Structures
1.
Amino acid sequence: MDTFYEELKDRVFDLWKAEGLLSERIQIRARALSTTEAIGNPEHQDFPIQKGKEKLMQATLMDAGGQAFTDMYGDYEGTLEAVLRLPMENNYQRAVFISSLNAVLRHLKRIEGSIHCRDEEPVTCGKALVPYLKDRYAGARITQVGFQPRMVENLAPAHPLRVLDMDPDNIGVQKFGVTIEHADNTEDAVEWADLLLVTGTTLANGTVTPLLNKRPIIFYGTTVAGAAHLMGWERFCPCSH
């Protein structure tokens, strides 16, 4: 197992043990949300989730929900202790762990914003990003990991911008004046940047480790909510629920 996930699991174990959850037979349910359930009906039709290649998998613990964006999705039911025993060898196992982590921390009221924004809220999110960065990162060179169209649309006029993605339909295509690059260019794009803007999906697909401790990072999205809290990471997700 990647050392990052070992550290994260250790922190999760310590928290769940301290809260007395490991001895409980708590059932967690995860399922792949339909596009409409996950994001509603936004005016724009270019979000990754609408293309059907990835879905939000949602775990529910009593009164709380937590999500993970993944391309390997399916049902899961088990105790929290069983979740911690998952080997994290593929995207499905990581998504079960991450969505469960988010649901538990939401139940414990340690985090907010663990459910994806809907309808026209992604537009509001994208418009809020440049003002959010203005004081600390005005004019900064930004490498965005993961193509989030409304963010790219707003960042491109305001910052030197590179965008990395893993969807072959996006690679080499110009979006809002920026040519989307393959994730194979990560090392060069990280070296070039002053700031990394990283999708939380990197937690579920196992690509987060090469991005850590290289440049200042702001993560975005619901997937990273719990990990950001435990690891002390900055997260931008102003319209999540």
2.
Amino acid sequence: MPLQPGSKIGAYEIVAVLGAGGMGEVYRARDSRLNRDVAIKTINPQYEADREGLRRFEQEARALAALNHPNLLAIYDIGSQDGMAYIVSELLEGETLRTRLIQGPIPLRRALDYAGQIVRALVAAHEKGIVHRDLKPENIFLTKDGHVKLLDFGLAKLAHREAAADGHTGQTTITVDSGRALGTPGYMSPEQLRAQPIDFRSDIFSFGSVLHEMLCGKRAFRGDTTADIVTSTLSADPEDLCEVNPLIPPATALIIRHCLEKRPEDRFQSARDLMFDIGSLAVSSSSGNAVAPPPPDPPSRWRWLWWSLAGAAVLAAAYFAARSLMPAAPPLPSFTQVTFRRSSIWSARLTGDGNTVLYNATWADHPMDIFSTRVGSTEARSLGILNADLLSISPSGELAVLIDRIDPVPWFNRGTLASVPMGGGSPREILEDVQSADWSPDGTNLAVVHHVNDEQRLEYPIGKVLFRCGGWMTDVRVSPKGDRIAFLEHVTRWDDRGWVSVVDLNGNHQRLTEEFTSAHGLAWAPDGRRIWFSGTRSGEPPALYDVTLRGEVKLKYRAPTNLQLHDIAQNGSALISSYKDSTSIVALPPGQSTERDLSWLDDVILFDLSADGRTFLFQYYGPGSGVNYNSYLGKTDGSPPVRLGEGAALALSPDGKWVITKLFQSHQTVLQPTGVGQVRTLDREGITDEGNDTWSPDGQHVLFTGMEEGHASRCYIQDVNGGKPQPLCPEGITHAHMSPDGKLLLAREGKDYVILRVDGADKRPVVGLDPDETIIRWSADSQALFVYRPRKMIEVLLLDPVSGHKQLLHQISPSDPAGIIQFPVLRVSADGKSYIYHVVRKTSELFVVRDLPK
């Protein structure tokens, strides 16, 4: 029986019926915990006793939950009530592509934009091993803000598992000799129609069918009966798009034809290959002209023959005359690959002639090195400058490099600025505590980001302060005229969101862009009037932009992959890297002797592990996560993690019922329930919140580092039910962690760790902690500390903070060292027997790109 408005299912109140799907109803509902509307899909009663139906319903939930991407429907929750299974997802406003196609063909530029978003979604699904198998206009949703969402993964399967052998209510299911083929005729690939094994290339065929229909308003494979459609798909070629509509560029028609090849081996071999070609088409298409509908049927050739011939002659003359007056289409961007080894590339620069590239990179377990190569060559030469970041190249060939780096993550680095000849040699040290640097146009001075007394200073030349920043600055670049400095400005030192900023030689500072959720890579255009940069807007992949000195931002190039700008040559060629960040989560669960891979999403950070080692907390900050990121709760038994909601995850309560999260947009601290419960917001009441939130052992209080006006930073404690936070430690004592017995505090005083009583008395240093060791948590008896050394072989130790005695508990070695860019984040259970850690990898390829849009 359908649910009625006002009824409850789980924690959600039904608002209205939205429609019916293949297996159940879809409702609009209200999530009162997070104060938002959601969509709920239920399973029809006739499926409740159908194991296969329930299995497929759960399969859809798992498939979608594994794919967190801006162009895929986001899954919030899954559950059952009174025998009724349901999925909770984001609520979409807009229409399906099928509804839009009723109006006719879609203009070329808009169709290519939709196509690019669809392909990016397929890339995300395919890289998780999931094939959609039912891509068609009904399963493509167009939101009111212009985004595309792929729906209905009810037929999706993991590519490495056996194909399911079930039907799909609401779809046409075709029976063939070898079994049953699942999908929709007209969009299914030939191998899918034959019920043969399929892979990602089947989705590429379906995509070609959809794009064909978007551009000409008719299906690629048609017929009066299902048998006719099947025959057309298996043996006939679709009509030539250029003949149907001469306004469709031949390059577009060629890509569609390549998608629709009958044999999988003749198509694009991956969605990632396809995305580059679609991205190039989208950039080159700037006219926005609508695709003309197909011409009407011709009149009787016997009655109107001469009139038709005369009219055709006139039209042909007009067409060629118009073509002669039309401006030539701009060339497509061309990519020349520079690097050919599986590596992590951190910075790269072009020399003056634009034909030599210098870059620093790491691969496998090799240290960072600086390499030189010529554009068009597959060979690279090491300069023998190990463990140094390349910052800038002067006109005379002098390199500015960063040595003796303090932080392990390159974009948060600071170290000693040095110069070294391009031909190699020993670095000559110039200045300590530098974050970024760039040579002046004449090579006589350097602009630097100098770290002094917990603030970053932009100096040009060295010693002359132009700008001070409480956060951090990267990618400092001097303009071609030497009259301005551009840089990326970030507010918090543990987050890469930021703005493009510029300062003149008098210290006048201006932010040119809105805040980007991620910003890496910046360079001046050769004319000095624009600044190119790579960044990420909320919910979108990194792309290339430019901004004028008046603050006019324009999208320059987007590909269905992550892009980072490194440099621009005088001829306008750009040096860009394509990169992929991936995160592996590995755990040793309680009672187990072997590790378990718990990887779920890329772009995640591990934050906490429960005392019993069975529950862990992580944060997702990748595409589609929004400005506040998302919090997830996972189980070390391998069951799928659960998305808790918006907010950057920080700490799990002792009873596992609450999570501390941060909302960046509103600068709020929020307590998120892990199950039933209402979200709570903690008002800091005028105290500047500096983060580092932890729980008291009873779970009734939150500890955090903050600062009141006129006072230095210190630790505060606040009741979970609200009220003004109270000072917990003397000023200068921060980052407090309370012992399990509630009597002691582990805290920071400057760079050193100390232990003191909760009342602030009897402060003593932590003995025996080496500089490269990180404290994880208190032991269950409050007598010792768990620490780890993040080296190639990770060591987990138990430290007596009084005597300094250490006991080795675990030695952990990541199975694949390639591309690791961060020392692992590791957490242990209260008894030290179980652990979990994550490893972040970055793999990159470097390209010189020519003919980018002006």
